[in-house]
Amino acid sequence: xxxxxxxxxxxxxxxxxxxxxxxxxxxxxxxxxxxxxxxxxxxxxxxxxxxxxxxxxxxxxxxxxxxxxxxxxxxxxxxxxxxxxxxxxxxxxxxxxxxxxxxxxxxxxxxxxxxxxxxxxxxxxxxxxxxxxxxxxxxxxxxxxxxxxxxxxxxxxxxxxxxxxxxxxxxxxxxxxxxxxxxxxxxxxxx
Length: 191
Description:
Blueprint: E1 2-4, H1 15-26, H2 34-45, H3 51-59, H4 68-77, H5 85-90, E2 96-102, H6 103-113, E3 117-121, H7 138-148, E4 153-158, H8 164-168, E5 170-177, E6 180-183, H9 184-190
Parallel strand pairs: 1-2, 1-4, 2-3, 4-5
Antiparallel strand pairs: 5-6
Helix pairs in contact: 2-3, 4-6
């Protein structure tokens, strides 16, 4: 099976950021919530709060966008052109997506694309509150093992070296820069 990160790997740009901006265009008055999210972003960058807490504050705007599935569906109907050509050409039904983006944002689009398994950050769909640790870095391996145990990853794809824990357990791994794929070890040597 092949495993992929989602944002900036099979979809460009970052879907979470793009969804937040999409929501703000739909209801601009919700912008009043952003200063609080900004405070938590600064705290996160200064090491004063966890990434999970910062993302929770950012996604708290979804309480203004209910029913959420309506907004998510509309968002994806307008953003299908963001999927990478390399991915669409090689996708398989047993593909696994592992993403730090919230599952409520990716669940339906993964089904529509015929992706077999989605593993993502879990957030309350009414409040944006994180329900589990952010699915990022080493946590992705934990989540993968919960579902697949020691099953082999044939190929792994990501835009970020923060996904090195998954790359290390794959037979082959590639860093993705839009449509350019570079073998993981070669990319590490260059950066």
